[in-house]
C-alpha cells in the first residue's frame, strides 16, 4: 500500500504463468519391430575405452 499525503492508493500485481516448451516423446508405429527377443548380437562395451598398460609385465 502506498501512502501519498492524505490519499492512499493500492497497487495490485498480477502474476501470469506460462508453460514451458512441450517435451519430446518417442512414438512407435505398428510397423516397428521389437528386437529385444530376436537373438541379435549385442556389444555392451562398445563405448568403454581400455588403455593398453605396458606396466603389467611383472619383472622382479
Structure description:
By secondary structure, this protein is largely without helices or strands. It is about 0% helix and about 10% strand. It has a two-stranded antiparallel sheet with strand order 1-2. The protein is elongated, with a radius of gyration of 33 Å. It starts with a strand and ends in a 51-residue tail after the last strand. Regulator of type 1 phosphatases which maintains protein phosphatase activity under strict control. Belongs to the YPI1 family.
Relative helix content: under 10%
**Extended strand count:** 2
- Evaluate the radius of gyration: 33 Å
| Major sheet size, sense and barrel closure | 2 strands, antiparallel
Low-pLDDT sequence parts: none
Let me know the average pLDDT. Answer: 73
Structural class: little secondary structure
Summarize the helix and strand pattern as letters: EE
Walk me through the topology.
Elements: E1 2-4, E2 7-9
Antiparallel strand pairs: 1-2
Biased composition (Low complexity): 1-20
Function: Regulator of type 1 phosphatases which maintains protein phosphatase activity under strict control.
Keywords: Nucleus
Amino acid at each position: 500500500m502506498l501512502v501519498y499525503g492524505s490519499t492512499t492508493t493500492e497497487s495490485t500485481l498480477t502474476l501470469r504463468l506460462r508453460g514451458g516448451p512441450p517435451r519430446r516423446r518417442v512414438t512407435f508405429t505398428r510397423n516397428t519391430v521389437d528386437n529385444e527377443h530376436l537373438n541379435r548380437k549385442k556389444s555392451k562395451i562398445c563405448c568403454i575405452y581400455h588403455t593398453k598398460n605396458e606396466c603389467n609385465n611383472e619383472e622382479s
